[in-house]
Description:
By secondary structure, the chain is α/β, with parallel strands linked by helices. It has a single domain, classed as Transcription Regulator spoIIAA (2-Layer Sandwich). It is built from 9 helices and 12 strands. It has helices spanning 5-11, 81-94, 98-112, 128-138, 165-178, 207-217, 234-243, 255-263, 265-275; strands spanning 20-21, 48-54, 62-67, 115-118, 146-147, 185-190, 193-198, 223-227, 280-285, 292-295, 301-304, 312-318. The strands form 2 sheets. Strands 1, 2, 3, 4, 5 and 12 form a 6-stranded mixed β-sheet that branches. The chain is globular. The termini are far apart. 41% of the residues are buried.
Amino acid sequence: MNITRGEFLKMVGLGTAGLVATSALPAFAEEKEKQDLFPGRGRWERLSIVSQHVDAGATKPFSILHISDTHLTEAYPGESEWTRRRAKQRSKVFGGHQEESLRDSLVWAKQHVDYVIHTGDLIDFQSEANFDLVRKYYGKYTGTITGSLGNHEFFCGQAKAQETDAFKKEMAAKLAEVYPFDISLQSTVVNGVNFVTLDNVYGTVTAEQATRFEDEAKKCLPIVLCMHCPIDTPNIRRAASKYWKREDLKTFPDVTNFKLRCSDSVTKDFIAYLKSLPLLKAILAGHYHITVADRFSPTAMEYLVGGNFIFHGQEITFS
């Protein structure tokens, strides 16, 4: 059929943005039983799926699979030496089963939940092979999952400083061509619940993002904020420091982002605004590779999910 991606999505009622029904997920070969994996045991033995529930005031109950930090590490033979070396090194770091984990997660989702959202670091670094995997799993014609970007989406091995506005703007143009959603901020309403995905990969938000979010709040719908970097609470930061084996929080790997969050006035005001917003019902994030939940505000819990590269995810039911 000679139609564009957008036209196709409109035909199936999905649009070009938003959470996508798991009924639209493609059929993977992995849906067949693998006799060589955990013979005689459960089909989903490798998956570690935590169950959560959010009372968000939905017009009709539904469920999602929240995954994050898959860290795909592929490179084609013809790509640069740095890219091929990076792929080899990082595949060892993440175990080499990342795509397998993603496929298993999506197959599980197709059978057990209504929607899927991925909160960043789907890829570990920029490469043509990784970009092709993004297109494959987000769907070149049939959208499969949606979400937000992570800091690794911006990593391309350039020697210059990564965490600058100029660098981010340069990389964002390329990423916007690959990812099928508004990479800055996107809103999707599901059964009366407004899922807002936000790019905060450097720990900060822009004034434009803050304004756009406030416009979403004016819809007077319950909000679930989805982003890569969590907003630290004492318990989340304590749990993260244990995972990364850092006794002194000053040496925590995310210290740069943490300092930015603490010093950037727009971000500080935005966090204060979130804490006072009764419509905020939950925050979904990743980045730290741990599954932990903590109270963020009187009306919202913050839920972090462990790394999808080690077969982690969380099922969240909404009512």
